[in-house]
Amino acid sequence: MNYSTTAPHYWDPSFANAPDCLLSADQCVIRAQHYFVKGLIEIPVIGSTTVFSWGVWVSLSRASFARAADLWETPGREKEQPYFGWLSTDLPLYPSSTLNLKTHVHTRPLGECPVIELEPTDHPLSVEQRTGITLDRVREITETVLRPRAGRT
After folding, report:
1. Domain ranges of the chain
2. 118-132: string of b/e by CB count within 10 Å (b at 16+)?
3. 88 Rama class: left (phi>0) / alpha (psi -120 to 50) / beta
4. Under a CB-based contact definition with an 8 Å cutoff, are residues 129 and 98 in contact?
5. Is 53 helix (H, G, I), strand (E, B) or coil?
6. d(Cα 138, Cα 119) in Å, to the nearest integer?
7. Residues 6+ apart with CB under 8 A from 20
8. Full pLDDT tens readout for the chain, 153 residues
């Protein structure tokens, strides 16, 4: 019930050895100018207690990233106000790009991934987060995500 990406859309493998770049499981810096954290867009599944989630990346301002990083291992960090960010993961299952949707990053207790709240808009991903999805939609997402792509072995 969770699909995740390993890096922001803007990450290039050539950045891996650059001294001003970093990619970890939950934080990313590109050229010491662009800052990202990983979180979950949680979507309720209608008629179930289960939640479907997308593991996505969100860009933060330098100041917000520094604050989040300073508190990353601090108990009580979930009391921090949400950070504004831009969605930096393209989920191609949607008819229009998910890049640069406005978000709020809510930190949670230590050991838990932040929750990404999309700004309420008419984008299908935002609508799904607000209204939930059916189990049929979960199956559709699963089939699409797991479907082999042309040219892939």
Report:
1. 2-146
2. beeeebebbebbeeb
3. alpha
4. no
5. strand
6. 22
7. 29, 31, 32
8. 789 999 999 999 999 999 999 999 999 999 999 999 999 999 999 999 999 999 999 999 999 999 999 999 999 999 999 999 999 999 989 999 999 999 999 999 999 999 999 999 999 999 999 999 999 999 999 888 877 655 443
